[in-house]
Write the structure tokens for this entry.
Amino acid sequence: MSYDPSPSYPYRPPDPPPSHDPYTYDTYPWAPQEAPEPAGRRPQRHTALGHHSDLRELRSAYRRQRRVATLTALGYFVLFLILSAFAPSFMTSTVTDGLPTGLLLALVQVPVTWLAIALYEQTARRRVDPIAYRIRKQAELDAKREGVR
């Protein structure tokens, strides 16, 4: 079968009439008018910050940071609780003269909390802060560009 590009009907129906918009008449001066776009405006090279991929990257880095710190502190505490509930003989055994394992593990909770805080600060400095700094600088540049126009 061959394809015939010629139209099967020589008649083309007329274009539909324009839709009726009551706000385009000059008899309604209070109707909102669209502002004409400035003639010398350049197209925007950078995407708006609301749609920027760096914000998604910042959110995921911050989410990872919270998970690491929370799982460090809470993970140790949950381990301590599980050992207290299900291994009482281990928790009452002594490490040295008069120092039970349970008390030693409870005292180690404070340095583990400090470790969680240190991990939080380290991941903030290494992963989250550079992304936030880059977004802040980009926002300042965008604000300066918009201010010049």
